[in-house]
Amino acid sequence: MKHATTLALALLAAATVAGSASAAPLLDPNPAIAVPILPPPPPPPRPPPLIPVLYSVYGVADGQLNGLHFSGAQFRLDFRSYTIDTKSVIENGATVYRNDVGQAVLTLQQGLSTTVANIAANQIFVRYDATNGVVGFGSYAVGPFYPVALSWCTDPATCSSSQIGTGYADDMIVGALVQLREDPQDSMFYSPAVPHLATQLKGPALLGGFLYACLSFDFTTHTCPSIPSVPIKTDHGDLYFQTQSAYGGGIFTAILGAGTPW
Length: 262
Fold this sequence. Notes:
The protein contains two helices and 13 strands, in the order αβββββββββαββββ. By secondary structure, the chain is mostly beta strands. The radius of gyration is 38 Å and the shape is globular.
């Protein structure tokens, strides 16, 4: 009887353990690792749109092309580029907008004769000194005011915002914009449209000033006595500007969407 009781107790204990084991949840010996689902990365930023721009200077000039002299010839100097290539730099404390990437073409008209000369690359650039009021085309070989510059003070190298007069209307648009920077009260002398003519060479532009197309004008003899030692290379030969006046007027324009440079 004693052995029977002991056996019964042992069977009961075994049944209890087995029941507990069957009730317990089954554990996966290799549970899956939960990996969070990350959102997709943002798309790369879109590049700025390429907006073509045509910069032009119109005026009357003297000079030489392929060894032939021209005098009092109407000209248009064009520079095709994209607005994205316009940069802002500080030169001697002045804010200057430049575009160095593009294709330049000179259209020269004298009498019934018209010549279109393509200018070789990497020779000239577009430049607007908004602080001192000088705009036009500069040359890597000669300087920022050659082959042609428009200003309010006849000699672009001497134009300074500190010297411009106020309290009256300036004759030239580039001068008016300098005046308005120096003394906003001078707006009383201009139409409301004039302040909006300020440009950073990234939008439409219309500026006017005294046309300077000379290496170094002699204001004593009122002549342009010499030409640069380095010509501007074109597909029609070497080009030099040697305008014998510093008091003629010129116009600078910028037109957006005017064909692609290349």
